[in-house]
Amino acid sequence: VEEQMRFGREYLTAMINNRGGNPAEGLAAYNAGPGAVEQHGGIPPYQETQDYVQNIMGNAQAGPGGVI
After folding, report:
1. In a 10 Å sphere around its CB, with 0-12 CB exposed, 13-18 middle and 19+ buried, how is residue 12 labelled?
2. Is 23 exposed, middle or buried (0-12, 13-18, 19+ CB in 10 A)?
3. How far apart are alpha carbons 54 and 50 in whole angstroms?
4. Could you tell me what percent of the chain has a pLDDT over 70?
5. Whose C-alpha in 28, 34, 42, 62 is 20 to 30 A from the C-alpha of 48?
6. What percent of the chain has pLDDT over 90?
7. What CA–CA distance (Å, rounded) separates 44 from 63?
8. Distance CA 50, CA 32 (A)
């Protein structure tokens, strides 16, 4: 479990870094894949991905520190 958590954290960090530090696009790449984000020039028009990004970003802003 610890290794899976570490890998997930490292992969998400890489996706955010690959999107120029943009957390929303990084989350979209984590969820839908980096190719989908590249193809659409940002968050793809997939309802699941849009809901995922909105949910995570909303929780991050409500959490400690207020932002990602």
Report:
1. middle
2. middle
3. 6
4. 90
5. 62
6. 84
7. 26
8. 10
| pTM of this structure | 0.85
Q: What would the pLDDT profile of 13-35 be if each residue is shown by its tens digit?
A: 999 999 999 999 999 999 999 99
pLDDT beyond 80 at 55: yes
Burial 28-57 (b: 16+ CB within 10 A, else e): bbbbbebebbeeeeebbeeeebbebbeebe
DSSP codes joined into one string, the chain? -HHHHHHHHHHHHHHHHHTTT-HHHHHHHHHH-HHHHHHHTSS-S-HHHHHHHHHHHHHHHHSTTS--
Separation of alpha carbons 27 and 13, rounded Å: 9
